[in-house]
Every structure is written in C-alpha cells, then in structure tokens.
TrEMBL record:
<dbReference type="Pfam" id="PF14893">
    <property type="entry name" value="PNMA"/>
</dbReference>
<feature type="compositionally biased region" description="Basic and acidic residues">
    <location>
        <begin position="215"/>
        <end position="227"/>
    </location>
</feature>
<feature type="domain" description="Paraneoplastic antigen Ma-like C-terminal">
    <location>
        <begin position="56"/>
        <end position="200"/>
    </location>
</feature>
<dbReference type="InterPro" id="IPR048270">
    <property type="entry name" value="PNMA_C"/>
</dbReference>
<protein>
    <recommendedName>
        <fullName>Paraneoplastic antigen Ma-like C-terminal domain-containing protein</fullName>
    </recommendedName>
</protein>
<feature type="region of interest" description="Disordered">
    <location>
        <begin position="215"/>
        <end position="254"/>
    </location>
</feature>
<dbReference type="InterPro" id="IPR026523">
    <property type="entry name" value="PNMA"/>
</dbReference>
Length: 254
C-alpha cells in the first residue's frame, strides 16, 4: 500500500480547480420576469428650430408640448424655452409682443398657431371634412388618416364644433367608404354600438375587407379549377386516324 503524497498547491492547480465554475462576469443578466416595459421621454430631447415655414406649426407645437411635459419647468422657463426654439419670422412674430405675452408659454404657442397655422376658415374646414369620401385606390387606413387630420384642424380652430369627435368620425367613415357592402356593415355596427371608438371601427372595416378579399381569391381559384377539370380532352392520334378511316369507308359505300 502506497502513501499518496498530496500535490503541492500551485496557482496552476488553483486555475484548473476553478475552471469548471461558470464565470459570473460572463453570465447574461436578464431582467426580472415581472419587469414592465415603460416608455420614457428623454429630458434632453431636442426640438427643431421653427422659422414659421419649415414645419407645419401644429406638428411642431405637439413636439414642444411633449418635451415640456417631460421636464419640470416654471412658467417663465417654459416661455423662454419656446422662444429659444424660434428663428426668422416665427421669432419676430413673438419678439415684438408685449412683455406679458412673452412670459406666457400658452400665449406664445397661440400666436404661432394663428400666424402660421391653417388659413382656412372654420366653415371651409367643416365642408372639407363632410365632403371627403374614400377615393379610388385609397386604402381604409389612408382614408382614416385624412379624416383624423381634417378633424384635428377643425378642433384646433374651434373645439366646440364637434362635442363628440369619435361619433362624428365613425359616421363620416361608415357612410363614405367605397364598398357598398362594407358601408352597410359599418352602419349596422354604428347603430348597434353608438359609443364605439373610431379606431375600433376602422379595424373592424379592415378585417372585414381582408376577409372578403380572401373569399374572392378562394372563389376565383375554385372556379378556375372547375373550369380546367371540365375541359374535354383532345382526341389522340389513334382516335383521329380511326375516325378518318371510318369516314373514308362511309364515302366509298355511298
């Protein structure tokens, strides 16, 4: 029986001993399963300079308000922030206003809206909305975007004209889509669900349209298949030769 002499402890042995252990540093750290996805607006998000003509003022004001809501700023700081984002005609429009006006962020945005916003009067905007129907080759989504844009322009001019924007959008959309069967389907939905949100009605319209398109494709494929199955086969060479021989014999007998 031999005595086992323990191996001297060396750094090399220590490395081998630990080599099987997973590296904590290389492990992929995963977030807890109950972690929620939250969207944050960056506080240092920049707003593009506005000259009065380089952007639609409505879109620019929306960007400004998004940034202002994400930051903790006093009333004067908000007014100064807006003013610093102006250049050219837009800056001049505010620059020569009274000191009290320049201290109010709401009044500054209102001035910019009046000076560079939609010039159409409220009556013309209302007519454009009520006369707008779905155009040929215009998708349901595209048509809905046009209606929502017109609605936004109207409410920016007069927020009291449409007390129920969702209902007005649903009525206009359901009554003016191109497909007559879809119009009938949507009108039934609006009557049965008077408080349905406009985007829900639009999604219902898109789903209905896609289902009908799928049915048409299946019907056309089936019809084409049935037509192909019923086409009589062309006679073979032997059959043709036999027929010619029969016809020749018949002529000789005559």
């Amino acid at each position: 029986m031999y005595n086992t002499v323990p191996k001297p402890f060396t750094n090399e042995n220590r490395i081998k001993e630990l080599s099987w252990k997973p590296s904590v540093e290389n492990e992929v750290k995963r977030p807890p399963s109950n972690e929620k996805n939250v969207v944050y607006v960056q506080k240092d998000r920049k707003v593009p300079k506005f000259t009065g003509y380089n952007f639609q003022v409505e879109d620019w004001i929306e960007d400004v308000n998004t940034v202002l809501h994400a930051r903790e700023m006093s009333r004067q700081e908000r007014a100064d922030f807006i003013y610093l984002q102006l250049e050219g005609s837009a800056k001049d429009e505010v620059k020569y206003r009274s000191h009290l006006v320049r201290q109010s962020p709401d009044q500054i945005l209102e001035i910019l809206q009046d000076a560079f916003g939609v010039k159409d009067n409220i009556t013309k905007l209302q007519k454009n909305f009520l006369d707008r129907v779905q155009k040929p080759n215009e998708s349901l989504r595209e048509y809905s975007y046009v209606l929502m844009d017109l609605m936004s322009k109207i409410t920016n001019k007069d927020s009291t004209w449409m007390p129920n924007k969702e209902k007005t959008l649903c009525d206009q959309f359901s009554q003016n889509v191109q497909d007559s069967y879809l119009r009938k389907h949507l009108k039934q939905i609006v009557r049965a669900q008077s408080h349905i949100p406009f985007l829900d009605l639009r999604e219902e319209a898109i789903m209905w349209s896609e289902e009908e398109e799928y049915k048409d494709k299946r019907y056309n494929t089936k019809t084409k298949s049935e037509t192909t199955d019923t086409v009589p086969e062309e006679p073979t060479t032997d059959v043709c030769a036999s027929k010619d021989k029969t016809d020749s014999s018949s002529e000789q007998s005559d």
